[in-house]
Amino acid sequence: MARTGNKNIQAKLVVLGDMGTGKTSLVLRFVKGQFHDYEESTIGAAFFTQVLSLPDAAIKFDVWDTAGQERYHSLAPMYYRGAAAAIVVYDITNMDSFERGKKWVQQLQRHGNASMVVALVANKSDLESNRVVENEEGERYAKENHLLFFEASAKTAHNVNELFYEIAKAVAVASLNQQSGMKLQRRPDDLGRRLFCCSS
Amino acid sequence: MENKRVDDHEIQTTVPVRVDRFGFVKHEQNPPEALMSSKSASEYEREERRIRKWRKMIGVGGSDWKHYVRRKPHVVKRRIRKGIPDCLRGLVWQLISGSRDLLLMNPGVYEQLVIYETSASELDIIRDISRTFPSHVFFQQRHGPGQRSLYNVLKAYSVFDRDVGYVQGMGFIAGLLLLYMSEEDAFWLLVALLKGAVHSPMEGLYLAGLPLVQQYLFQFDHLVKEQLPKLGEHFAQEMINPSMYASQWFITVFSYSFPFHLAIRIWDVFLYEGVKIVFKVGLALLKYCHDDLVKLPFEKLIHGLRNFPEDALNPDVLLPLAYSIKVSKSLEDLKQEYEKQTAKTVEGLVKQEKQQP
């Protein structure tokens, strides 16, 4: 798939965040370049794949796009378990969604992989006139918690490719460290092998 | 229906929207509409005869129905499995689900719930309203009659049962019902299902922790291993479990992301025979695609399990296959096994807690 000498990295990516923040829309913008004003609510979870090429590696993302409502919380662990990266989405026009996003971050810090790349995304940047979560607030929180941070808009495509590109870069670095540090094995009891699989 | 309501800013089109026979907007690639579009005269006559038979069975306004079901339950079952005529579907659904009785026993209750009560779920419901069947003309118009009635039914239910409230997924069930009956009728059918008027209650699908979803997935997982061992083994190797593809089958009873003409046929049987049919249809889908699925690696497998080929989704092929699969006995055994297991886990947790001072 990638040129000779380049690495193929397979990475599981989970998308979390409150309902209606635009998780599916961000993923569809990235995977298909499409946007719908009224994207059907996600029930359970949806699955997508997309390959992103970096100068010296190709990252294949297995994307789990989850249902946002609090009630579905109990299903989430199986999607973020063994994930190499997570995107936590909130909606800049909705303060509750920012608070909910923080809760997801905390949960990932407590229960996710130590090496997981986490990005906080302030979505719907096109709705500036309805903004209630200031850019600085999100940025500060991300900084304090060592997260990648992007204000983005799935609708206008603002920062969407950048977001996935930066995640891919960070995942590539993490996978290198991981490789030199320890041997990855198939762990049939969870989805461990989805963390990284490399072939050179 | 061809004379659609164009939304102010949603569908950016000036040409008339083309919809299929159920009111869903047609995409460029033609869906399998050829099935029904051009009926021959003899087919048309057969359909007419079928409707006459059904009318006789129902009686005026449902007056003969109960009597008929008591006398000839097998005839009813057989006819329902062949599909309820679309023009009688809404009425028959209310009769077989027990919702008609609930409606008659509770005059004025629905109105009370809609008008006078407030619900903690209102914001959640609003956020999902335009995202429920967004490609159906009835639900497309912002604040139009479709969206308003969907909101009312969901809000009323969230007040009626505050433990359940509103859970994503219920909208697709309510939406499907609203295409066949009034708001109040749809509300009582939702009550009949969740509270278990005829079959075992569905509310566990939506309660905190989604306990019934967990149980059904456990049962389904074991049924696959039992009935399709080769595929079950392949799933295990690829680390695929049913929560990756089947949770929405149970949560929405196939009303989400399945072709509508198939969904309503499943609903005919679901309302009369209960949740068994969801397991049977799920297994039938796997069985039909078995030889392809066993060859696929992880990603393609997940994709395949979420995008079944058109021929597999033809109700006249899939449903007979589903009827041929027997699950009752296994379901009962697996339910007991699941209950034993969860009881053990709870016990373990309690013990752990006791040990920690």
UniProtKB/TrEMBL annotation, chain A:
Pfam families: Ras. The keyword Kinase does not apply. Signal peptide: none annotated. Keywords: Nucleotide-binding. SUPFAM superfamilies: P-loop containing nucleoside triphosphate hydrolases (SSF52540). It comes from the Eukaryota. GO terms for molecular function: GTP binding; GTPase activity. The keyword 4Fe-4S does not apply. This is OLC1v1037284C4. It comes from Oldenlandia corymbosa var. corymbosa. The lineage of its organism: Eukaryota, Viridiplantae, Streptophyta, Embryophyta, Tracheophyta.
Automatic annotation (TrEMBL), chain B:
The keyword Chaperone does not apply. SUPFAM superfamilies: Ypt/Rab-GAP domain of gyp1p. InterPro entries: Rab-GAP-TBC_dom, Rab-GAP_TBC_sf, Rab_GAP_TBC_domain. One of its GO terms (molecular function) is small GTPase binding. The keyword Transferase does not apply. Keywords: GTPase activation. Residues 83-274 form the Rab-GAP TBC domain. Pfam families: RabGAP-TBC. This is OLC1v1038681C1. It comes from Oldenlandia corymbosa var. corymbosa.
